[in-house]
Design brief:
alpha/beta; Rossmann fold; seven-stranded mixed β-sheet; 32% helix
Length: 161
């Protein structure tokens, strides 16, 4: 496990949410978390945990049909949850308001982020989820950029303790 990459295995949706919750506690304004994995692998489950750890008042649901959901913390901070599954490309992402969400300084969680890689900030946390059985998931985290690499190093230290 290095400061730039690690893999965790969860054995239930509750464990996946708990992993997300620990990550959410470390996220700062402007952070972008990019999620990838097949349909039904647990991306939204992880997002629910991230939002809870971050302090969201509302419980997240999948933004598949709305494309972008927004959640709030008691201090007014915002978390944007984006789903790019139905986007056909960069033009759809731009017209959906994704660039505005990224520019507003909140935390942005993007499912199917690989579809819009050109729009993403250079500093991002990448989370890949892989189905390894009925409820078992391999969750790979990596970082691009120094700020988020440091944040992931803190996350890894927290998870090891």
């Amino acid at each position: 496990m290095s400061a730039a990459h690690a893999t965790f295995v969860t054995h239930s949706p509750d464990e996946t949410e708990a992993l997300g919750e620990q990550l959410g506690r470390l996220l700062k304004p402007g952070d972008c978390v990019c999620l990838s994995g097949n349909l039904g692998v647990g991306k939204t489950c992880l997002v629910r945990g991230v939002a809870r750890g971050w302090g969201a008042i509302e419980r997240p649901s999948s933004p598949t049909f709305t494309l972008i959901n927004q959640y709030h913390r008691a201090d007014g901070a915002r978390l944007f949850h984006v789903d790019c599954y139905r986007m056909s490309g960069i033009a759809d992402a731009v017209s959906s308001g994704l660039e505005d969400a990224l520019d507003q300084g909140g935390v942005t969680l993007i499912e199917w982020a690989e579809r819009i890689r050109e729009l993403l900030p250079p500093d991002a946390i990448w989370v890949g989820l892989e189905d390894q059985g009925e409820t078992r998931r391999a969750i790979q985290l990596s970082a691009t950029g120094d700020q988020v690499s440091n944040r992931l190093a803190a996350f890894y230290a927290l998870m090891k303790s």
